[in-house]
């Protein structure tokens, strides 16, 4: 498999970005990683959500990693 995203990988990335937008998550495409192997798809996403604590704002960092088997 080449380093470039395949057509299906681009569809998956687009779908993830659309869902993040629907959920109002501040995910940027540059912080989304897709890697497909012969047996699984590995998806990683990193983003920060600002939390207003009235006196200060805390940036909560999320790092999401998931694996899905390919059938």
Please give a structural write-up.
The protein is α+β, with helices and mostly antiparallel strands. It has one helix spanning 7-22, and strands at residues 32-36, 40-52, 57-69. The protein has a 3-stranded antiparallel β-sheet, with no helix packed on it. A hairpin with a 3-residue loop joins strand 1 and strand 2 (40-52). The longest helix is centred in the N-terminal third of the chain and has 16 residues, at 7-22. The chain is elongated. The two termini are 17 Å apart. 0% of the residues are buried.
Care to give the gist of this entry?
The protein contains 1 helix and 3 strands; from the N terminus they run H-E-E-E. With about 70 residues, it is of the alpha+beta class. It has a 3-stranded antiparallel beta sheet with strand order 1-2-3, with no helix packed on it.
